[in-house]
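note to self: dont lose this again. the chain is below, predicted strucutre after it. 145 aa total, dont forget to put it in the shared folder this time
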Amino acid sequence: MSSTRPTYAGGTVIAAAVVGATALTAAVVVPESMSTNGPILCPFRLVTGLPCPGCGLTRSWVAIGHGDLSNAFTYNAFGPLSMAFVASMVVLVAVVAITAPRRLSHIESILRHPVVWTVAGLWVAYGIARGIDAVANTGWFPPVS
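---
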């Protein structure tokens, strides 16, 4: 007779929360000068010279981590929103993991919510608009340097 334990996606949710918590910690620990004076790491930008939707997110998070909210929006308008979302999810996962670990799989449903998909779509549209702005040199968005 084999005993089977119920499975749930809690391990994946916890792993994602650990990655998020690590990124949040790095945003506070990494000096601002390190995030603004380094090599270009974005593969899309290296190949095309154009910003991708994620370009500037690291600098935005580091700016927030050091209390510089105005520059955070300049680097990437979705930086503060994404950081707030990740921080909220890390706290939620921690609370659920401690109080009701079997409910961790329910957290995945948050990521499938239409609001999350709408914001993700707006983020991609923002990234495309920044790319068009960089090509057309219209000056709608701050340059990604």
